[in-house]
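for the recovery benchmark. tokens below, seq after
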């Protein structure tokens, strides 16, 4: 295995004109093997080190994004310093903006702190109002689709230009776009589904505009929305977000 890693690290990089450039350190950005080697490196730099030096401190790592769970602010500051020293010793550096200490505020942790939310893997973790099984309200620290992810989904929907596809039927639109919508729902709908509703309302508005373009008798927003709402309630399986109850 070490032989293969060495060959990957020393293999020349090929430029767009076909010429080769020799290398002695690192891997080319965007190279297919770069994420694999980075993951192997961070496993030794961080994962094994945390298990040995901080065995009682749970953490998660996905690629180079890491969350470390601490019990107190003092412990968090101590682990933060230790991590920075460890990374520097391995010729790495923590991101100066993204690296921060966050207080996970909820009904059981009600202190006031400046930072009470963070983003991880497309989710924003922050205090949110919740209801327990007895119907009582409380504050929980839970994930929901992040603002950045919402913007990316909205941009993708905008690029589809559904309102200009009046040559297609609603069933054809479903076959084209529903697999992607289902993927969004499957991932971002795992926690706090209602956080997705603003994005899904935007998708419904695009479908309403499609109805207005498609049918002359439904040019008004009210008529187009009512017609699409009836279809959504009768055939919610056409679009994955309708199955969440996000009707037009």
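predicted aa per position
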């Amino acid at each position: 295995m070490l032989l293969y890693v060495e060959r990957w690290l020393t293999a020349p990089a090929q430029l767009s004109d076909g010429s080769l450039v020799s290398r002695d350190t690192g891997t080319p950005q965007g190279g297919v093997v770069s994420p694999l080697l980075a993951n192997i490196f961070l496993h030794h730099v961080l994962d094994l080190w945390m298990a040995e030096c901080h065995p009682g401190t749970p953490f998660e790592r996905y690629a180079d994004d890491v969350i470390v769970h601490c019990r107190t602010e003092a412990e968090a500051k101590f682990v933060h310093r230790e991590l920075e020293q460890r990374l520097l010793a391995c010729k790495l550096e923590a991101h100066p903006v993204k690296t921060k200490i966050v207080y996970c505020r909820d009904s059981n942790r009600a202190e006031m702190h400046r930072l009470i939310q963070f983003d991880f893997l497309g989710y924003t973790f922050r205090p949110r109002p919740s209801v327990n099984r007895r119907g009582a309200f409380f504050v929980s620290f839970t994930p929901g689709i992040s603002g950045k992810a919402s913007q990316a989904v909205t941009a993708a929907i905008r690029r589809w230009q559904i309102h200009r596809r009046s040559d297609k039927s609603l069933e054809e639109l479903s076959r084209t776009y529903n697999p992607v919508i289902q993927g969004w729902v499957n991932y971002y709908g795992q926690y706090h589904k209602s956080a997705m509703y603003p994005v899904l309302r935007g998708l419904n508005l695009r479908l309403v505009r499609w109805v207005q373009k498609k049918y002359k008798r439904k040019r008004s927003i009210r008529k187009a929305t009512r017609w699409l709402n009836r279809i959504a309630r009768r055939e919610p399986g056409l679009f994955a977000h309708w199955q969440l109850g996000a009707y037009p």
